Amino acid sequence: MEIHGSRPVDPAARRRQLEAARGPAERGAAAPAPLDASFAPGDSRAIASLVEALKRMEPTDVQRVAELKQRIADGRYRADPDELADLLLGRAR
């Protein structure tokens, strides 16, 4: 998904823009690859390692992630920028 400014670009609108920009010869060609996904040859190993990491997560971590996702979706999550900066820099309070 692309983001321009503060809004994500509508994937359907983006597809229409790309189709309109293609030349006539390209329009008759085989179906194009999906616009929002591209994988390099080594990506399958990276994805497999991420899947394994997810499988090893403790259930409490999975539950905490789900809870945070819901709070973010509901607009109930408020982050303290100073606390986040400290956590990212390894200086937890």
Secondary-structure map with pairings?
Layout lengths: L2 E2 L2 E2 L2 H11 L2 H4 L15 H14 L2 H16 L6 H8 L5
Antiparallel strand pairs: 1-2
Report a brief summary of the structure:
The protein has 93 residues and is mainly alpha-helical. It has helices at 11-21, 24-27, 43-56, 59-74, 81-88, and strands at residues 3-4, 7-8.
Number of beta-strand segments: 2
Strand order of the largest sheet: 1-2
> What is the terminal separation in angstroms?
35 Å
Strand content: under 5%
Provide the succession of SSEs: EEHHHHH
Spatial extent as radius of gyration:
20 Å
Query: What spatial form do the alpha-carbon principal axes imply?
Result: extended
Task: Please state the average pLDDT score.
Answer: 76
- Contiguous runs where pLDDT drops below 50 for at least 5 residues: none
Largest sheet: 2 strands, antiparallel
Output the structural class: mainly alpha
In helices, the fraction of residues equals 55-70%
User: How many distinct helices?
Assistant: 5
